[in-house]
Amino acid sequence: MSEPDESETRSRATTTWWSRVILAGLLLAGLGRAAWLRWVCDDAFISFRYARNLVAGHGLVWNVGERVEGFTNPLWTFAIAGGLRAGLDPIVLSQMLGLASYAILLGALWRLERSVAPGAVLPLATAVCALLPNMAE
């Protein structure tokens, strides 16, 4: 197998550069839109209450003294509890964690797409995920 010539190497570098510019634009557009549309579902307040009781030393309970599991997201509840312990507002924290998770999703999708179709300039799946209208609207 022969070494790539200079023009082919330059072409790959240009494709990579444009792909990263497109990714940055998609991230900004997607995150901007997500930040604009951010909201907190009423179910989130269930996790907030469990997290508050955990931080207060009562354990993962809805009511003190009653051992009933009423949440479906232990990792998220622990993350909110950690934020409460640090003095953070659970609503703002959950919104920021949601936006960070969305950014990580877009980055991971872009990397997966680049590994499957390395020559593509436009990461189509990432673009669709970043710009697809929110189904909850």
**In total, how many beta strands?**
0
Low-confidence stretches: none
Ends apart, CA distance between termini = 53 Å
Order of helices and strands: HHHHH
- Tally of structural domains: 1
**Mean of residue pLDDT values:** 84
Helix content: 55-70%
Shape: elongated
**Tally the helices: what do you get?**
5
The SS-based structural class is: mainly alpha
Rg value: 21 Å
Largest sheet descriptor: none
- Tell me the β content: under 5%
In words, what does this structure look like?
There is one protein chain. The chain is mostly helical and 137 residues long. It has one domain. The protein has five helices and no strands. Helix 1 packs antiparallel against helix 4, helix 2 packs across helix 3 and helix 4 packs antiparallel against helix 5.
Could you provide a short overview of the structure?
The chain has 137 residues and is mostly helical.
